[in-house]
């Protein structure tokens, strides 16, 4: 058996720092990184136990100043592999639902933003055994999945769902006023300026967002996030060259910034630079193999290049990594409308589309019904395809150019013909 011991220098360091501090017994700690439980041996730990994920929180059963024993786990970790965790207890799976007036709850689908920086906000979830794990929030705008009515809100960030204290959040409609007040109270509050820019962006005021990000970057010229976010604002303005330039600057600041590579890939996709888009997305997923959006951008670029087999694989990967309505919808659309017969699967497209709509809850966009109609058509059920397309067309917010395309698809379905996305 391979025996893995900690280096002696680490043991000496831990002993010298922590030997006189044995005060974590019965307190909660959070793991600093992924760690493997071990058995005490002369000179260190034999790492022969279970692996615990970074961010997991535990109550400490014993603390001898050098090693911690965790409640519910067999084995020990070094004390410096964990840190004291002080936070509110998030909802448990079987907690009774509090009785509150529905009008006081944030509806599902509400967009919210953090009142503090992401690393200052407690965000976590419970696993199948009801054990708490905490993460760092990613992204600036979050989507409410459930308001628990007890001061906790379940939200989705860029990559996962979890619980956040409602006191740490402000809804999208109030965010701009909230951060604008902070900036006016203290013009040197860089974080508030950054968040005001993000609030403008979330409200669709992209010129104002660009202006605030530009002002912020004068004061903080090496902030990769600001370049990335301004790039997103340029994307919304359809100024793809400027978006590419900002994402490139973000990458120059941090060559390991996967998000900027993925976003640059998306910008190049829109600029019809499909090969470059694929290259950027490949780099993004090399840096972050769980970056679902980059797989989605890559899939679209591959489709434009006529590489449908590879596109299908990327759509599938994106949906597995991020099983959300938009991911299911994109994959379903591909399976229903791909010009290559070998890549189409109407039955699977219907299943994925319906799964996505079910996840969307009460907020069902016409986009998702349009996809379900195309899926039914590919599956040969034109009666359902017509019904879904007519239901989708009831939405008064559809822009005229898109409405004409949808109406053309409706006529295809009435003629018992499926739609092929060969644009």
Helix and strand arrangement:
Layout: H1 8-18, E1 28-31, E2 35-36, E3 39-41, E4 44-46, E5 51-52, E6 57-63, E7 67-70, E8 76-78, E9 82-84, E10 111-114, E11 123-126, E12 132-135, E13 141-147, E14 152-156, E15 161-165, E16 169-171, H2 172-185, H3 190-202, H4 206-219, H5 224-236, H6 240-253, H7 258-270, H8 274-287, H9 292-304, H10 308-321, H11 325-337, H12 346-360, H13 366-378, H14 382-392, H15 400-414
Antiparallel strand pairs: 1-6, 1-9, 2-5, 3-4, 6-7, 7-8, 10-13, 10-16, 11-12, 11-15, 13-14, 14-15
Helix pairs in contact: 2-3, 3-4, 4-5, 5-6, 5-7, 6-7, 7-8, 7-9, 8-9, 9-10, 10-11, 11-12, 11-13, 12-13, 13-14, 14-15
Structural overview:
Helix content is 47%, strand content 15%. By secondary structure, the protein is an alpha+beta fold. Among the domains are: 8-84, SH3 type barrels, CATH 2.30.30; 102-173, SH3 type barrels (Roll), CATH 2.30.30; 323-423, Serine Threonine Protein Phosphatase 5, Tetratricopeptide repeat, CATH 1.25.40. The strands form four sheets. Strands 12-11-15-14-13-10-16 form a seven-stranded antiparallel β-sheet. β7 (67-70) and β8 (76-78) form a beta hairpin. α7 (258-270) runs antiparallel to α8, α7 runs parallel beside α9 (292-304) and α11 (325-337) packs antiparallel against α12. The longest helix has 15 residues, at 346-360. The N and C termini lie far apart (59 Å). 37% of the residues are buried. Mean pLDDT is 90; it is low at 1-20.
